[in-house]
Each structure stands twice: as structure tokens, then as C-alpha cells.
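Hey, can you fold this?
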Amino acid sequence: MEKWTADIREKTKDMNRNQKIEYICGYYWYHILIGCILLGLLLLLIYHIGWGKREKDFSCVIVNQEIDLKRDRELSESFGEFSGLDKKKISVDSDYQISYGDKKLDGVNESSYEKFFFRWSSNETDAMIMPESFYEYCIEQNGEFSEEKLYLKDTWLKKILRDDERDPVLIAFAAQSKHKEACRLFLEYVNN
């Protein structure tokens, strides 16, 4: 670095300020670019370590229901008040429109399917509200659930979610959930 600085000083000693800036930008632009990229990466790393995405205390996904962000937020806040968990660390997400087996939904792409199974496999999902046929499909795909499950019709959630007699909706819990106590509290919450 000292060698570059000395070289630049030597070559620009007879130039005025504008000429020096023009010379440096013209001949050392790629050094400046690489330095800016490295600084940006360093700042991004510091942000990620210090303030990046934090793990949730409870995560619930709602499969093949109407996507309603307001309802999801209200459920998160309501469950937070009931359970005493930090509302900001509770996630309820209904953005899971999934085609599976012989059930094909119009206008659905594979990203929700992949997102669902990726989050489940990385233990980021605790509770799942889904049609019974999808529950059975997940078991066929080697998905593991805890023994506890509850049908939507037996909870107060039946007032805000759509149920189907031919394919009833149920609430199931991931066997590998890291938040067993939060799952127990969610069962109490929906039965309250």
C-alpha cells in the first residue's frame, strides 16, 4: 500500500488537484472498485452477525388457505399476548399455495412447495395448518410429525380459516420442533 501511495505521489507531484483525481480514477479505478466491494462485504458480514435475521420463537405455516397478511399478523400478535412470547419472534405465514400428488391448484408454482419443505427440513417450522390429504402426502414424503394433531373444526380457528368436509384441515406439529413449549401453548391457544 505504501509503495502504491509513493508511486502515485511521484507521478502526480506536478499536477493540480483535479488532474490528480482524474489520474487516480483513470488508472486505479479497479483498485477502488475492489476496495469498495470488500468494504461492502465486510459491512454486510458485520450487520449479519450483529443485527441479522434472528431465529423465531414459534413459526406456524398455513397451507392452501387464502393468503391474508393482516390475519397472519393478528394471529401472531394474539398468540404472543396469550403465550407471553415476544410478538416479533412469532411467525404465522399463509403464503403457501401448494400443488401435490393429484391435487393441482391453478396459478401455483413450485416455489411454495420448495419453501415449505426447505423450512421444515431446516427445523424452521413448528406448527402446520394444512388439509389432511397434504398431511398424508407429507408422511409419504418421510415427513415426521409429533403425535399431537388437532382438527380445525375443534378449534376457534374455524371462524377465520376455511375447512372442507371432504378434506378436513388439521393442525400438526413438526416432530423436530425446537420449540416444544411454544407448541404446547399454541395448542392451548387454539382450544381456548
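Oh, and this one too while you're at it.
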Amino acid sequence: MGFIEFPFIEVPKDLRKIVGEPTPRTRAYRREGTHAECGQWIEDLGLYYKGDVGISPAGVTMFVPVQRAAVHKRIKEGKLTAFFFYITRIESTFFGTRRKVKLRPYIVLSVSECKAWAAEMKRRAGYVDEPDETPLRVSKRLMPLAAEDEPKTEKEAKEALDFAETDPKDKGTRKVRYEEALDTENRQQDMFLLLAEAMAAMASGKKAEFYRKRLEKGMKWDKKEKTWKWKE
């Protein structure tokens, strides 16, 4: 089987004003700012990539049977394009100095790259795409191979998580302090709302109206499934 180049999405230089600069030797583009700027960021990404960018690291499992740690590891290795946004504010310390406070980032990835990762995994397993197969059947067959993409040690998993949650350029500086963002439930809801807002702005006609109505109705927490769902 010949070499197949991974189909990374293009991130032109003129898009850097929206996505920020990449961490060296990776495709991890990092940006920071206010809540309002974060909303504009996800909307701009949705418009530019026509809906291809917007999936979270947790959502990658819809396409590739791996845990989130494997996604972080692949981003750290420069094998996935990822867009980060850190919401920031300025605080005064006890001694009167000022420093930046950064929340753990929102991270979005490309759906097409996730599909390409799945296709790559299937090629490594030795079989070609089978369009009639369900994702579940494919996932079960790929589980042993998927383990190869997971971090091999706890240290490797922690390093991948640290890379995903904190900007390497902030390491060792006292001028930046990281803090946890909203709890998991609220962060999930926040991302759903941001994506819906982006789709409402990007789509047209009935599709745009569909997302506007969703935003008007809001969301509710499903305790049994432990996820946010749109109100009917």
C-alpha cells in the first residue's frame, strides 16, 4: 500500500487573526479573549470552514473509537488540527501586582480530519472502507488497534492533557494563572449553545430558522444520560 498523505484542513496565514498562532511543531492554534470574542471565534470558524470545524475532543469518539487522552496525544504530536480559545481576565494579587487569569480552553476540531483518522486506522487494520457498515460495528472491530493510539503511560497521558489545557508558552511564568472553567455540565451546555449560534448565523432559510428556534427554546439536563438536550 502506497503512502497516503493525511488530508489536513488548510489554515491560511490570513486566518491567524481569528485563530491565533500555532504552538511550534504542532497544528494547535491558540487564541484568547473575552466571552463575546469566544462566541465570535466559533462563529467565524463555522463560517470559514462551512461547518467542518466545531467538534470537541469528546465528540471525536463518534468517528474514532478512542478516549479523549488519545485525541490530546495526537494534537500534541501535530497529527490533528485543533483550535483553542482561552477566556481571560485580569486580576490584582495580594501584593498589588496584576496578572492574567485564563480558564481552561474550549477546543474544536475538524470533522473531516476525524473521519480521515478513522480511515487511517482501518487501513492499518488491513481492510478498506465498507460503506454499509455501521459506526458501532466498525468501532468494535477497531478497538484493539485503537489502543495503539492511546497514551502508553500515565505520564504520557498527563503531558498530553497539560498540553491541551495550558498553553506551553505560559509555562514557568507567574504573570498567568489558570483556573477551572465552568463545571463539566455547564461547559457542555455552553459549547452546544455556541455551536447552535454559529450554525444559526452560517445557515440560511429553514435551516437557520431551525437553529434560532432551538436557541429560543433552550436546553435541559438529562440526569439519566448525563447530557444536555434541546427542549422540544
